[in-house]
Amino acid sequence: MKNFNFQAGTKILFGKNKINELANEVLRHSNRVLITYGQGSVVKSGLLDTIKSKLIEKEIHIEELSGIQPNPRLTSVREGIKICRDKNIGLILAVGGGSIIDASKAIAAGFAYDGDVWDFCTRKATPADALPLGAVLTLSATGSEMNGSAVITNERTQEKLPMGSDLLRPQFSILDPVYTYTVNKWQTAAGTADIMSHLFENYFTPDSGTDLQDGIAEAILKTCIKYGPIAIQEPRNYEARANLMWASSLALNGLTGTGKLIGDWATHTIEHELSAMYDLTHGVGLAILFPYWMKFVLNERNAFKFVRLGKHVFGIEDENPMVAANKTIDAIRDFFVSLGMPSKLSEVDIPDTHFTEMGKKACQFGPIGYFCRLNDAAVTQILEMSK
Ligand code: NZQ
Ligand code: ZN
């Protein structure tokens, strides 16, 4: 196990009616707030009105930025930065899923930067300061509610790139599982696949001696396998929604990556090319790609990691490690399919036309992945396998 520093700086307020603590949390930072949200789910559910009335009660000034799209666009980010500057905003309150929180992080960093906010995604700059941010989570998936990462789409260049800094971790996040009752089957399944993918990214690394971290990852994976199908069948099942919500945060707040050099993250990088070009739901892309990535990288030297996962998570045993590893990969694909996720790119109408271009774009900063280094030709090959 390697040395590490671990600080998950976000205060989590978890459970029913935790919204009652919102105004006090906001006032720790400012009495001038920008509320950011998406394309209407929080209006329809009444959550936005509840939040506004709680803030108005405490005389907190509110501005709003609505219409943030899934795979959040740079245009919304620029709009948010302008509002924050013009209206002297002191805190951004993101109400929604990962896209809303990510856009809000980019706004928070862009507010404090004189240059173009896209510079953070192209690695020309790193955030040196940021507005404080709070979140009210409505979809269990990305872990954005408890980490410092954001992924932004530049619609002009069709690029989707990450940015990150500890400065962008939300100061607080309200996690009331009841807010996820209205998430439909498709997004619930995609969110579950995303949570599991975050665990895979930090599980499949070249490190050794991280038995505890890998055991935690296996426990969270089993939670997803148990509760994902229940949440899909019974959307208002509190325990299922609650377990998925906490799994979302724990899967990507840095915990399971501690003591390791770095996670793999190749599959996420490849998926971002798909959602940049085809506006695909992130978790759907991952559900398709991950089993193919696994088949591509599996070899006799690294099979033991797949064998461990299969044994601990799916109860798979076989004397032959390669057979056990392949059975594990098949079990993962079967689980995603059982949630209603596709297993091929053709099922979501993605043709093979741009695979070479996507391979090049995925590797624009150099080869990707650490469990197995992939160049652009390898990425193209994985896309070919997935078609
Ligand atoms: O826009 P509204 O109307 O709110 O509808 C949203 C959206 O259509 C809907 N939704 C959210 N909560 C709902 C709801 N519908 C009904 N009831 C509710 N309670 O769900 C749709 C998807 O929302 P979105 O925020 O896009 O989903 P998700 O949380 O999966 O976020 C995906 C984005 O996060 C990025 C992805 O790449 C993608 O852009 N990621 C961010 C990460 C991070 N910051 O650490 C890591 C991830 O790997 C990921 O890359
Ligand atoms: Zn993800």
Automatic annotation (TrEMBL):
GO terms for cellular component: cytosol. Gene3D superfamilies: 3.40.50.1970, Dehydroquinate synthase-like - alpha domain. PROSITE patterns: ADH_IRON_2. It comes from the Bacteria. One of its GO terms (molecular function) is methylglyoxal reductase (NADPH) (acetol producing) activity. Keywords: Oxidoreductase. The keyword Oxidoreductase applies. Residues 10-177 form the Alcohol dehydrogenase iron-type/glycerol dehydrogenase GldA domain. InterPro entries: ADH_Fe/GldA, ADH_Fe_C, ADH_Fe_CS, BDH-like. Residues 188-384 form the Fe-containing alcohol dehydrogenase-like C-terminal domain. Belongs to the iron-containing alcohol dehydrogenase family. This is Uncharacterized protein. It comes from Saccharicrinis carchari.
